[in-house]
Design a protein that fits this description.
- 30% of the residues lie in helices and 21% in strands.
- Helix 1 packs across helix 3 and helix 7 packs across helix 8.
- The protein is α/β, with parallel strands linked by helices and 393 residues long.
- The longest helix has 23 residues.
């Protein structure tokens, strides 16, 4: 049985709106690979994937093999790009579910090629007659990928494989969401590094396939480095990429109106009368200075309401803000609603964050993130699996 008190509402129309807004910024020939990793940034990977198929998105990006398996088992047919490296034990699942991986390094490429040969020897076939891979290039992020001077050699290794096909090359920018000159300069240097790697592969007589480098910030603000495809993530779910926000984009003449996709809400489960001097929650960090009432909400850090959000967090109950007091617990938190508040009763809805102005939300995930000195990405992906996702239009 699902928990009907604490839940995340996912607004399907807002996903559709955001994807449509992003498409307006792309040339007709530029492909879109929507990131649905981490369960669609905490929303619903499956719902986003289904909508992407309806809207003509070209590809979906995942971070774990099991994420791809889940999508395939639910009937998703779009190409899936695995952004993280997988271990050899996962190779067979890559082949079985036709998940396109990022690969690099002679050893890794050789192991994958040999495993692919064995898979085909067992009588298995691929839809296109070969297994697609993308070569990862490290242009300055420092995570995965070969160096630009290694790109041609590793592309040749892929090209020489019996059953692998180089269908793309990709990199990732470290400072693309920074609008300060240092960030712009570093992004430009990474762009040049990637371009050199791509040209080296071409000069070796090998088709690099789909070339891609930019995530949300680049998709919004740098059409000059979109290459063949962009990989939007956070903007699909309604939030701007750090400094590349609405104000900055407007200053560049770019109009991008995003709508947050998720609302995080719960209900008042109890109302308690407190006298002056009474304390609440672990550590007794809050003491009542006067008679007041405390509303108990059945939501805590095991649901994704991070402990560090208190003190300072406010929630909306019936359209008004009330402060969370005391430490947020694993499964509950407490809110000071004032003495004899006739506007609040048990089982009234309490909204933690969501699209401002829609269904009672007074703050969005970005506002909450600022309180916890983090980013909207972490706020959304922290909403745990035990919180049911309810998809509405």
């Amino acid at each position: 049985m699902k928990n009907e008190t604490t839940r995340a509402i996912i607004y399907r129309k807002n996903i559709e709106h955001n994807i449509s807004e992003i498409k307006k910024l792309l040339k007709p020939e530029t492909k879109m690979c929507v990131a649905v990793k981490a369960d669609g940034y905490g929303t619903s990977a499956l719902e986003t994937a289904r909508l992407c198929e309806e809207l003509g998105v070209d590809m979906l990006a995942i971070a774990r093999v099991n994420e791809g398996i889940e999508l395939r088992q639910e009937g998703i047919k779009l190409p899936l790009l695995l952004l993280s490296l997988c271990c050899p034990e996962e190779f067979e699942d890559l082949f079985k579910y036709e998940i396109t991986p990022f690969i690099f390094g002679r050893d890794h490429i050789t192991l994958l090629s040999e495993a692919c040969d064995d898979f085909v020897k067992k009588g298995n076939v691929f839809a296109d007659g070969f297994f697609n891979v993308h070569l990862a290039i490290d242009t300055g992020m420092g995570r995965i990928g070969c160096r630009k001077e290694e790109a041609a050699e590793q592309a040749k290794l892929i090209f020489s494989s019996k059953h692998l096909k180089l269908s793309g090359m990709g990199t990732h920018f470290a400072l693309s969401d920074c609008v300060e000159q240092k960030g712009i300069d570093y992004t430009n240097q990474q762009f040049e590094n990637f371009l050199e790697a791509v040209n080296a592969v071409k000069n070796a007589g090998i088709n690099p396939g789909i070339c891609h480098a930019g995530a949300s910030a680049i998709a919004c603000s740098r059409p000059d480095i979109h290459f063949d495809m962009v990989r939007p993530g956070i903007i699909v779910y309604g939030y701007y990429a750090d400094q590349v926000d609405k104000k900055y984009l407007a200053s560049k003449g770019i109009d991008l109106e995003l709508k947050p996709v998720m609302q995080f809400e719960t209900k008042v489960s109890a109302i308690r009368r407190f006298k002056p001097g009474q304390t609440v929650s672990y550590g007794r960090t809050w003491t009542s200075k006067k008679e007041t009432d405390i509303a108990v909400l059945p939501v805590g850090y095991a649901d994704g309401l991070l402990r560090r959000f208190s003190p300072g967090l406010k929630v909306a109950i019936n359209g008004k803000e009330y402060p969370v007091v005391g430490r947020i617990c694993m499964d509950q938190c407490m809110v000071d609603i004032g003495k004899d508040n006739k506007e609040i009763k048990c089982w009234d809805k309490a909204v933690i964050f969501g699209p401002v102005g829609q269904d009672g939300a007074l703050q969005d995930a970005e506002t909450l993130a600022a309180l916890g000195n983090t980013i909207s990405y972490e706020v959304m992906t922290s909403i745990s699996k035990r919180v049911p996702r309810i998809v509405v239009d």
